[in-house]
Amino acid sequence: MVILMAERKRMAPYAPASAVSEFFDHIRYVKTPTEVDSALLQDYGLSKSQSFPTLSTLKYLGIIDDKGVPTPAFRALQTGGDEFTNALQDILQNAYSELFNRLDVSRDSRDKIMNFFARNSSPATAERATSLFLDLCGEAGIETAASKEGRQPAEKPPSGTARRKPSPPLPPPGGSDNGSRVVVEIVVRERELQTMTPDDIKAVFDAAATIETARYRAALNVPNQTGQAVGGK
User: Fold this and answer.
1) Radius of gyration (C-alpha) of the chain in whole angstroms
2) Distance between CA atoms of 110 and 116, rounded to whole angstroms?
3) Are 145 and 109 in contact (CB under 8 A)?
4) What's the pLDDT tens digit per position in 15-73?
5) Three-class SS of residue 96?
6) pLDDT (tens digit per residue) in 142-164
7) Contacts of 111 (CB under 8 A, 6+ apart)
8) Which helix (H) or strand (E) is 22 found in, with range?
């Protein structure tokens, strides 16, 4: 009984969801380690700053014990498809049992979940703990009302895609506009977006900006850095 009470008082985890998801993806392709520590997580591709909160998260979820030794839950997550989803559901239901007992996440708002963490864990980390919890629920296929909040864009993109708002056209050289405009629109599927790191996303949009500039200059027949017109004329 004393041990159970100690578990209940443990601070809710607040690691970046992207780091935890990257850990899940990596362990599918490696042998089960004898111990998980910060150095191993960095070998898995996590940054040093991500490794420590992720380590705490794995302990809270019961994926490793307090000494870092993988539990049966670790091995259950070295799977894919429905088997992985069902295993993660069981892990979350157990680790967040008090929250699931007090709230109906399929109906309760994000604010209610965040207030739960503020009262029962720490107000300082409640926002991040809420974000991690909701992301984990999404990965486990647990429906939450909070995940649907704020998802009413003015112009809804096609199902399963995320759209970047087209960038405004570049002004032509000399401040005049001959009516030539080039707009590049990026379509990223939701599943692909979830697996991309912030650096990957930035690289995609940077590349799009380069393409947009090149096409605009080509439309205006503006010389490039070598002095040759981009359009080849």
Assistant:
1) 23
2) 10
3) yes
4) 999 999 999 999 999 999 999 999 999 999 999 999 999 999 999 999 999 999 999 99
5) coil
6) 999 988 875 544 444 454 444 45
7) none
8) helix 17-27
Query: What are the tokens at 119?
Result: 């009262």
In contact, 182 and 169? CB cutoff 8 Å: yes
How many other CB atoms are there within 10 angstroms of residue 134's CB atom? 20
pLDDT band at 216 (very low <50, low <70, confident <90, very high): low
Task: Name the nearest CA neighbour of 147 among 195, 109, 188, 198.
Answer: 109
Beta pairing partners, 162? 188
Phi then psi for residue 188, to 5 deg, are -120, 125
Whether pLDDT at 174 is above 70? no
Residue carrying the six token digits 């080039």: 182
pLDDT at 96: 97
Domain boundaries, the chain: 2-148, 161-220
- 25 φ/ψ angles, rounded to the nearest 5 degrees: -65, -40
CA atoms of 113 and 102, how far apart (whole Å): 10
For residues 163-174, give the mean pLDDT: 50
Strand partners of residue 70: 64
| Of 109, 108, 128, 112, residue with least CA distance to 20 | 128
Whole-number Å distance between alpha carbons of 63 and 61: 6
Q: Strand, coil or helix: what is 229?
A: strand
Residues 113 and 103: beta-carbon distance below 8 Å: yes
Q: Closest by alpha carbon to 91, among 72, 65, 69, 73?
A: 73
How many helices (H) and strands (E) the chain has is answered by 11, 2
